[in-house]
Amino acid sequence: MIKIRVPGTSANVGPGFDAFGLALTIYNTFSFEEKSDGKLTIRGVDKKYQGTTNLVYRSMQKVFKKAGHHSKGLYIHSDVGIPISRGLGSSATCIVGGLFGANALIGSPLTTEELFDIAVEMEGHPDNVAPAIFGGLVVSLTDQGKNFYIKSEIHPTFEFYAIVPDFPLSTSDARQVLPKKINFSDATHNLPRATMTYLALVNGSEEILRVSMKDRLHQPYRKKLIAHYDVITRKARDMGCLNTCISGAGPTILAINSVNNPGFLNEMSVYLKEKVPGWQLIPLFPDNAGVQILRG
Ligand code: HSE
């Protein structure tokens, strides 16, 4: 039996659209066993995900194919801790869990870099799978079919809160509302803000982070899909939180708070409960470890 733990991720972090991703202390854990009964058994998920279209299973097949391995039977169990279709990288965890689980099951013939390449190909962009694999705050790019990343650790002055609604939003719906073209001024607006957001998160520059996260590439279009977005983000700022953004493609709102503002947790919990029931607040820290093989 192999057990793989994969962190959830928050992509974009405001102005870093399709570039930044941050691994957080919220996890999906997958268990794998090869069987000789010729059957595929998938547990821990809804019935509709228990067949060969299951994303964890499909990811495993990619590794088996590349390694020339023929599996007779498989048991997969998912222990799901990350809300689904909420912008917290749950599909990236399925891909990464399946790839690393399959590789570990057959004696690790593929390197981490090879698994990263397959994960990017499957997900279509690297900003969730890169932090899910490597942990920390990751900026990544694909150039001429090759994937590159730089990982940094977030400064300990920051803590994170996922403010999660009770409705899902699919990434494809959230990409459909984006414009085909953007103004030159919107591109130049984002460039220094993205760079300074990354550096502020690493250096612990709270005052920079308060102003650097305004985005003009995706959030103005996407926030219309998220009921209560404006009021919740305004309240978060009123409660002294440093900044907020849409987590990945949404609909979760990521709040970045200073550890020196400990009242935020209670104030926001009470506000959500009283004014926007259905939303939940999940306190989180950065995960610097990335994917972990817990037992092998
Ligand atoms: N960067 C992607 C997007 C992340 O914002 O569409 C989605 O998982």
TrEMBL record:
Residues spanning the membrane: none
SUPFAM superfamilies referenced in this protein's UniProt entry, alphabetically: GHMP Kinase, C-terminal domain, Ribosomal protein S5 domain 2-like
Domain GHMP kinase C-terminal: 207-256
PROSITE patterns found in the cross-reference section: GHMP_KINASES_ATP (PS00627)
Chief location of this protein within or outside the cell: cytoplasm
Reactions catalysed: L-homoserine + ATP = O-phospho-L-homoserine + ADP + H(+)
Binding site for ATP: P83, I84, S85, R86, G87, L88, G89, S90, S91, A92, T93
Record-listed E.C. numbers: 2.7.1.39
Record localization: Cytoplasm
Record key words, sorted: Amino-acid biosynthesis, ATP-binding, Cytoplasm, Kinase, Nucleotide-binding, Threonine biosynthesis, Transferase
Any matching Pfam family: GHMP_kinases_N
Xref: InterPro entries: GHMP_kinase_C_dom (IPR013750), GHMP_kinase_C_sf (IPR036554), GHMP_kinase_N_dom (IPR006204), GHMP_knse_ATP-bd_CS (IPR006203), Homoserine_kinase (IPR000870), Ribosomal_Su5_D2-typ_SF (IPR020568), Ribsml_uS5_D2-typ_fold_subgr (IPR014721)
Chain ranges of the GHMP kinase N-terminal domain: 54-136
Family: Belongs to the GHMP kinase family. Homoserine kinase subfamily.
UniProt function note: Catalyzes the ATP-dependent phosphorylation of L-homoserine to L-homoserine phosphate.
Protein name as annotated: Homoserine kinase
